[in-house]
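Re: weekly structure request thread

Next one in the queue (224 aa):
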Amino acid sequence: MVIRLATALDVPLRQHNALLVAAGFSPVWRQTDLAAPELGQVRKALDYMLAQQEPFPAVAVDRHWNLLQGNSGAFRLVEFLVGPLPAGTPVNLADALVAPDVLRPYLENWADVVRFFVRSVEADAMADGTPETAALHQRLLSYEGVRAAINSAPTELATTPVLAMHFRKQDTILKLFTTIATLGIPQDVTLQELRVECFFPMDDETTGILRGWSAPTVPAPPAA
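Done, posted below.
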Protein backbone atom coordinates (compact mmCIF):
# COMPACT_ATOMS: atom_id res chain seq x y z
CA MET A 1 0.00 0.00 0.00
CA VAL A 2 2.84 2.41 0.81
CA ILE A 3 4.44 1.72 -2.56
CA ARG A 4 1.14 2.17 -4.40
CA LEU A 5 0.38 5.45 -2.63
CA ALA A 6 3.88 6.83 -3.21
CA THR A 7 3.72 5.88 -6.88
CA ALA A 8 0.26 7.39 -7.35
CA LEU A 9 1.38 10.63 -5.69
CA ASP A 10 4.60 10.74 -7.74
CA VAL A 11 6.68 10.87 -4.56
CA PRO A 12 10.45 11.09 -5.25
CA LEU A 13 12.40 7.91 -4.57
CA ARG A 14 14.21 9.39 -1.57
CA GLN A 15 10.91 10.20 0.12
CA HIS A 16 9.46 6.92 -1.08
CA ASN A 17 12.13 5.16 1.01
CA ALA A 18 11.39 7.45 3.96
CA LEU A 19 7.71 6.51 3.85
CA LEU A 20 8.58 2.82 3.81
CA VAL A 21 10.89 3.21 6.81
CA ALA A 22 8.22 5.19 8.69
CA ALA A 23 5.77 2.37 8.01
CA GLY A 24 8.20 -0.20 9.42
CA PHE A 25 9.59 -1.55 6.15
CA SER A 26 13.04 -1.54 4.58
CA PRO A 27 13.87 0.93 1.79
CA VAL A 28 13.49 -0.51 -1.70
CA TRP A 29 15.34 2.12 -3.76
CA ARG A 30 19.13 2.17 -3.79
CA GLN A 31 21.29 5.30 -3.58
CA THR A 32 24.43 4.41 -5.53
CA ASP A 33 27.58 6.49 -5.75
CA LEU A 34 27.87 7.91 -9.25
CA ALA A 35 31.40 6.46 -9.47
CA ALA A 36 30.19 2.91 -8.76
CA PRO A 37 30.85 0.29 -11.48
CA GLU A 38 27.13 -0.48 -11.92
CA LEU A 39 26.53 3.10 -13.10
CA GLY A 40 29.25 2.88 -15.75
CA GLN A 41 26.84 3.13 -18.69
CA VAL A 42 25.15 6.16 -17.15
CA ARG A 43 28.53 7.86 -16.72
CA LYS A 44 29.30 7.15 -20.38
CA ALA A 45 26.01 8.75 -21.37
CA LEU A 46 26.79 11.72 -19.14
CA ASP A 47 30.26 12.10 -20.67
CA TYR A 48 28.70 11.97 -24.13
CA MET A 49 26.13 14.66 -23.31
CA LEU A 50 28.74 17.01 -21.88
CA ALA A 51 31.09 16.44 -24.81
CA GLN A 52 28.33 16.99 -27.36
CA GLN A 53 27.58 20.38 -25.80
CA GLU A 54 31.07 21.71 -26.57
CA PRO A 55 32.10 24.45 -27.06
CA PHE A 56 29.10 25.63 -25.05
CA PRO A 57 29.04 25.08 -21.26
CA ALA A 58 27.35 22.10 -19.62
CA VAL A 59 27.39 20.81 -16.04
CA ALA A 60 26.02 17.88 -14.08
CA VAL A 61 24.77 18.63 -10.56
CA ASP A 62 23.04 16.83 -7.72
CA ARG A 63 19.73 17.85 -6.14
CA HIS A 64 21.47 20.55 -4.07
CA TRP A 65 23.33 22.03 -7.08
CA ASN A 66 26.70 20.64 -6.05
CA LEU A 67 28.85 20.36 -9.16
CA LEU A 68 29.56 16.75 -10.08
CA GLN A 69 31.05 17.22 -13.52
CA GLY A 70 31.50 19.92 -16.15
CA ASN A 71 32.75 20.15 -19.68
CA SER A 72 35.58 22.34 -20.95
CA GLY A 73 33.13 25.02 -22.06
CA ALA A 74 31.85 25.38 -18.50
CA PHE A 75 35.33 25.72 -17.04
CA ARG A 76 36.33 28.25 -19.71
CA LEU A 77 33.31 30.37 -18.78
CA VAL A 78 34.08 30.18 -15.06
CA GLU A 79 37.73 30.96 -15.61
CA PHE A 80 36.85 33.99 -17.74
CA LEU A 81 34.47 35.38 -15.12
CA VAL A 82 36.11 34.58 -11.78
CA GLY A 83 39.48 33.04 -12.60
CA PRO A 84 40.72 29.43 -12.46
CA LEU A 85 39.61 27.18 -9.62
CA PRO A 86 42.14 25.01 -7.81
CA ALA A 87 41.73 21.32 -8.62
CA GLY A 88 39.32 19.60 -6.28
CA THR A 89 37.58 22.79 -5.15
CA PRO A 90 33.96 21.96 -4.20
CA VAL A 91 31.52 24.13 -6.14
CA ASN A 92 27.87 24.74 -5.35
CA LEU A 93 26.25 26.44 -8.32
CA ALA A 94 23.34 27.74 -6.25
CA ASP A 95 25.68 29.62 -3.92
CA ALA A 96 27.84 30.77 -6.84
CA LEU A 97 24.81 32.27 -8.58
CA VAL A 98 23.07 33.84 -5.58
CA ALA A 99 25.94 34.93 -3.31
CA PRO A 100 27.08 38.55 -3.67
CA ASP A 101 30.73 37.94 -4.51
CA VAL A 102 30.97 35.19 -7.16
CA LEU A 103 28.87 35.52 -10.33
CA ARG A 104 26.67 38.40 -9.22
CA PRO A 105 29.15 41.19 -10.12
CA TYR A 106 29.12 39.96 -13.73
CA LEU A 107 25.42 39.11 -14.09
CA GLU A 108 23.61 42.22 -15.25
CA ASN A 109 20.11 40.80 -14.75
CA TRP A 110 20.96 39.06 -11.49
CA ALA A 111 17.66 39.98 -9.82
CA ASP A 112 15.55 38.47 -12.60
CA VAL A 113 17.59 35.26 -12.74
CA VAL A 114 17.74 34.83 -8.97
CA ARG A 115 14.00 35.42 -8.61
CA PHE A 116 13.21 32.38 -10.73
CA PHE A 117 16.08 30.26 -9.42
CA VAL A 118 15.31 30.71 -5.72
CA ARG A 119 11.66 29.93 -6.36
CA SER A 120 12.71 26.70 -8.08
CA VAL A 121 14.76 25.76 -5.01
CA GLU A 122 11.75 26.59 -2.84
CA ALA A 123 9.67 24.21 -4.98
CA ASP A 124 12.32 21.52 -4.53
CA ALA A 125 12.23 22.03 -0.76
CA MET A 126 8.46 21.68 -0.70
CA ALA A 127 8.59 18.59 -2.91
CA ASP A 128 11.23 16.59 -1.06
CA GLY A 129 10.59 17.85 2.48
CA THR A 130 14.17 17.20 3.60
CA PRO A 131 16.09 19.40 6.05
CA GLU A 132 19.01 19.63 3.60
CA THR A 133 16.97 21.22 0.79
CA ALA A 134 15.16 23.47 3.26
CA ALA A 135 18.54 24.60 4.61
CA LEU A 136 19.75 25.37 1.09
CA HIS A 137 16.67 27.47 0.46
CA GLN A 138 17.11 29.39 3.68
CA ARG A 139 20.81 29.93 2.98
CA LEU A 140 20.02 31.43 -0.41
CA LEU A 141 17.39 33.70 1.13
CA SER A 142 19.94 34.94 3.67
CA TYR A 143 22.22 36.44 1.01
CA GLU A 144 22.11 40.19 0.63
CA GLY A 145 19.46 41.46 -1.76
CA VAL A 146 17.77 38.11 -2.42
CA ARG A 147 14.47 38.80 -0.66
CA ALA A 148 14.25 42.20 -2.34
CA ALA A 149 14.90 40.56 -5.73
CA ILE A 150 12.17 37.98 -5.14
CA ASN A 151 9.64 40.66 -4.23
CA SER A 152 10.56 43.09 -7.01
CA ALA A 153 8.79 43.34 -10.35
CA PRO A 154 10.49 41.52 -13.24
CA THR A 155 12.39 43.74 -15.64
CA GLU A 156 12.37 41.11 -18.41
CA LEU A 157 8.78 39.96 -18.75
CA ALA A 158 7.76 38.25 -22.02
CA THR A 159 10.29 40.30 -23.99
CA THR A 160 12.28 37.23 -25.08
CA PRO A 161 11.30 33.57 -25.61
CA VAL A 162 13.33 32.52 -22.54
CA LEU A 163 15.02 34.38 -19.72
CA ALA A 164 18.70 34.56 -20.62
CA MET A 165 21.60 35.26 -18.27
CA HIS A 166 23.36 38.47 -19.29
CA PHE A 167 27.01 38.30 -18.28
CA ARG A 168 29.32 41.25 -18.76
CA LYS A 169 33.00 41.53 -17.95
CA GLN A 170 34.72 44.64 -19.22
CA ASP A 171 33.82 44.82 -22.93
CA THR A 172 32.74 41.18 -23.29
CA ILE A 173 29.00 40.44 -23.18
CA LEU A 174 27.61 36.89 -23.04
CA LYS A 175 23.91 36.06 -23.22
CA LEU A 176 23.07 32.46 -22.34
CA PHE A 177 19.90 30.49 -21.72
CA THR A 178 19.79 27.01 -20.22
CA THR A 179 18.04 23.67 -20.49
CA ILE A 180 17.91 21.06 -17.72
CA ALA A 181 17.76 17.35 -18.49
CA THR A 182 17.03 14.44 -16.17
CA LEU A 183 17.20 10.68 -16.63
CA GLY A 184 14.07 8.91 -17.81
CA ILE A 185 12.55 6.35 -15.44
CA PRO A 186 15.38 6.28 -12.86
CA GLN A 187 15.33 3.46 -10.31
CA ASP A 188 18.11 4.81 -8.14
CA VAL A 189 17.95 7.83 -5.83
CA THR A 190 21.23 9.27 -7.10
CA LEU A 191 20.13 9.04 -10.71
CA GLN A 192 16.70 10.52 -10.08
CA GLU A 193 18.33 13.56 -8.49
CA LEU A 194 20.93 14.01 -11.23
CA ARG A 195 20.50 17.10 -13.42
CA VAL A 196 22.38 18.08 -16.55
CA GLU A 197 22.24 21.80 -17.32
CA CYS A 198 23.31 22.91 -20.79
CA PHE A 199 24.00 26.54 -21.66
CA PHE A 200 23.20 27.87 -25.13
CA PRO A 201 24.05 31.25 -26.71
CA MET A 202 21.17 33.68 -27.08
CA ASP A 203 22.79 35.58 -29.94
CA ASP A 204 25.43 35.26 -32.64
CA GLU A 205 27.90 37.40 -30.71
CA THR A 206 27.90 34.99 -27.77
CA THR A 207 28.20 32.05 -30.15
CA GLY A 208 31.28 33.59 -31.73
CA ILE A 209 32.94 34.28 -28.39
CA LEU A 210 32.39 30.77 -27.03
CA ARG A 211 33.57 29.17 -30.26
CA GLY A 212 36.60 31.45 -30.31
CA TRP A 213 37.60 30.41 -26.81
CA SER A 214 37.66 26.76 -27.90
CA ALA A 215 39.58 27.30 -31.13
CA PRO A 216 43.06 25.75 -31.10
CA THR A 217 45.90 28.21 -30.85
CA VAL A 218 47.87 28.39 -34.07
CA PRO A 219 51.61 28.69 -33.37
CA ALA A 220 53.38 31.64 -34.88
CA PRO A 221 55.53 30.87 -37.93
CA PRO A 222 59.26 30.67 -37.25
CA ALA A 223 61.24 33.84 -37.80
CA ALA A 224 63.01 34.08 -41.13
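The chain has a mean pLDDT of 91. The longest helix spans residues 110-128.
Next request, please.
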